[in-house]
Each structure stands twice: as structure tokens, then as C-alpha cells.
Predict the structure.
Amino acid sequence: MEDIVIHNAMGVCSAEEDTRILARVCAEEAPAGGRVLDVGTGTGYVAIYLAKRGLEVEATDVSERALQVAGANIQRNQVPVRLYRSDLFQAVRGEFDVIAFNPPMNPRETELTRWVTSFLRRHRRTADLLMRAFDRWLQGSRMGFLMGFMEQAQGHLRPGGCVVLEATRAELDALEKGLSSWQICRRVDIPSLPAEQIAVFRPSGERDV
Ligand SMILES: C[S@@+](CC[C@H](N)C(=O)[O-])C[C@H]1O[C@@H](n2cnc3c(N)ncnc32)[C@H](O)[C@@H]1O
């Protein structure tokens, strides 16, 4: 993992290929020295990657265990990241140039189900098969959560800013259709997770920069 040292831990989503692509896309979209919010930071990889590139980074998670693991990784890499607990934007203040989110498979996660999903993230083929099998169910259960996230994100975006979101292709299509105030400017494939993509959303009417 290039110049970043990450310790993964059971119960916390491990940093995988999608995490690395998410970090790279955020770095490509952020202006030099810009402000980035990493929602649901997990191990802290995205936040650390961006802080190492001179961006001003805040990272949040709803899970205390994830915050402990991210905090230790941030210390290990000696980067300035403001890390705090927040359920989506509940404790977030201010505006950002980029807001990143790789959402949980199940928005109603408990510390117990996080152990299961952290296990699945290490077994990509099984995870991809499950994502495909439960696509219809996931769409139903995650769509409201993702719509809520996008609505709240709008209030925390600087002019010209964007949201970088990982979701299934079907969810991204449904979000694009259902959210008239947003447009997807870019979609990036994840080779190890063919059912998912990373999308760059900008408020409708703004050109990709
Ligand atoms: C799929 S993992 C992604 C972790 C990391 N960003 C990555 O890409 O590897 C989802 C993360 O979101 C966190 N999370 C779940 N629900 C959340 C919420 N309502 N607010 C903030 N974080 C949340 C989980 O604890 C978990 O760390």
C-alpha cells in the first residue's frame, strides 16, 4: 500500500482495492490544499492518503471501534487528520470541497454485524456474489439511507465541490434518477467488485472541473 502503513482489525472494514480507488478519485477531484470530509473512515486509509497529499482532512465514523483503529493508523502515519464520531453529518460543521463515502452494506449495522462485513471484505468474490444476490434487497434497504446522505451532503459542500460515493451500479442509476439536484459527472469501475462503482456527484448545473 505505497507509502501508507495501515493495520486492519476484525470488526472494522479493511482497506481494499475499492478504498484505494476511492482515495485516488478524491485526490483527483480535490483542489490543491482543499478541504475533504471522509465519512465512515473505517481504518482511516482515505483520510491518511489525502492528508499525505496536503489536503485538510476531517474523518468521521459512527463506530467507536473504527475510530480507535483509524486513530492508531493516523498516528502511525503522522498526518494531521481531525477524527471524530458522527452519525453521517450529525456532528459535522462547515463546508468541504470533497465529501467521500463508502457506505456500509447494511445501514442498520451493529458492532456484531460489522464483524461479519469486515470478514466479507477480505473475501472479495463471496462479497461480490452476495452484493449481486442481494442487489434488489440492498436497493430497498440502502436507498433511503443513501438519499438521506446525499441530501445532507448538499449543505456541507463548498461551491464547485463534489461527493465521491461508492455504491452498486443499480443504486447509482436510481440515485441519479431520484435526485434532481445532483448529477453524476464520472463513474469509476472497481475491478474486484464488478457490481459496484465509485461515482462523482456534483450539484446539477455545475460542470465537472
Ligand atoms: C464499507 S466501510 C468503508 C470504510 C472505509 N471508508 C473504506 O473505504 O475502506 C463503511 C464504514 O462506514 C461506517 N458507518 C456506517 N454507518 C455510518 C453512519 N451512519 N455514519 C458514519 N459512518 C458510518 C462504518 O462503521 C464503516 O467504518
